């Protein structure tokens, strides 16, 4: 595909796209003529999500990363869904909404600094935990593992993490236990493990009782009876 040319996004799903390619979106994705808007206006049915490797532009979606174009349809048969580029990059690039495992490296006033495997460290406020207040601060120490999600992630600002969802609940996020062990895998393997009905996870759950935390930054934390080096060999 020539850079700058426009090609329908639906026809490129599963194919290799290159940085600079422009993917065109249907102007009328639904039979009632309802237009799919990508701007800041009210989002109609069939809202489209722009994932990693893509950026919104006037013509549709601009490819910023080399890889395979993927598409996940919206639920209920509505138009829209999510587009993203599946690439084999080695360094993790923070993306807003991604759930990752970070390592606390320092305390700076009311903010913790976390190593998330990116080009710079992420910040995490002590108030970004469920039930945290100025008097009731979480017991976070240097070296602790934190499972959270990115609230802010762009090239012009420092990444910011939180351990609560939009309703203020932890939803499984927070400080990971001291037991167990942490190891790193490729970003491509993480995406496969996080896929719905992953066969690898289903097979392992029948062999070993274990607890698993998967981070989009390629980090896996594991704990459970029977987890040993043979289980690591299967994942790696």
Q: What is the typical, i.e. mean, pLDDT?
A: 81
> For the terminal residues, how far apart are their CA atoms?
35 Å
**In total, how many beta strands?**
17
As a percent range, the share of strand residues is 25-35%
Q: How are the SSEs placed, and which strands pair?
A:
Elements: E1 6-8, E2 16-17, E3 22-24, E4 48-50, E5 54-57, E6 60-63, E7 67-72, E8 81-86, E9 99-108, E10 111-115, E11 122-125, E12 145-154, E13 157-162, E14 174-175, E15 181-184, H1 187-193, H2 199-207, E16 211-214, E17 219-223, H3 229-235
Keywords:
single chain; 3 helices; mainly beta; 236 residues; four-stranded mixed sheet
In short:
The chain has 236 residues and is mainly beta. The protein contains 3 helices and 17 strands.
Describe the 3D structure.
This protein is mainly beta. It has three helices and 17 strands. It has helices at 187-193, 199-207, 229-235, and strands at residues 6-8, 16-17, 22-24, 48-50, 54-57, 60-63, 67-72, 81-86, 99-108, 111-115, 122-125, 145-154, 157-162, 174-175, 181-184, 211-214, 219-223. Strands 9-10-11-13-12 form a five-stranded mixed barrel. A four-stranded mixed β-sheet has the order 1-3-6-5, with no helix packed on it. It is globular and about 55 Å long.
């Amino acid at each position: 595909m020539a850079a700058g040319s426009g090609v329908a996004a639906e026809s490129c799903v599963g194919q290799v796209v290159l940085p600079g390619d422009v993917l065109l979106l249907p102007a009328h994705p639904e039979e009632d003529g309802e237009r799919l808007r990508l701007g800041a206006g009210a989002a109609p049915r069939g809202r489209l999500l722009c994932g990693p490797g893509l950026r919104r532009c006037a013509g549709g979606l601009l490819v910023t990363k080399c890889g395979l174009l993927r598409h996940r349809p919206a639920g209920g048969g509505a138009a829209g869904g999510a587009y993203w580029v599946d690439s084999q990059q080695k360094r993790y690039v923070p993306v807003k909404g991604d759930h990752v495992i970070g390592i606390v490296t320092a305390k700076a006033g009311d903010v913790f600094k976390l190593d998330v495997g990116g080009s710079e460290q992420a910040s995490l406020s002590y108030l970004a935990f469920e039930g945290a207040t100025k008097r009731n601060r979480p017991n976070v120490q240097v070296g602790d593992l934190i499972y959270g999600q990115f609230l802010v992630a762009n090239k012009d600002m420092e990444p910011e993490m939180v351990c609560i969802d939009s309703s203020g609940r932890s939803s499984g996020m927070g400080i990971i236990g001291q037991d167990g062990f942490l190891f790193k895998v490729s970003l491509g393997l993480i995406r496969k493990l996080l896929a719905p009905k992953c066969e690898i996870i289903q097979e392992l759950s029948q062999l070993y009782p274990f607890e698993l935390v998967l981070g989009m930054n390629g980090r896996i934390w594991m704990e459970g009876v029977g987890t040993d080096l043979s289980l690591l060999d299967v994942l790696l």
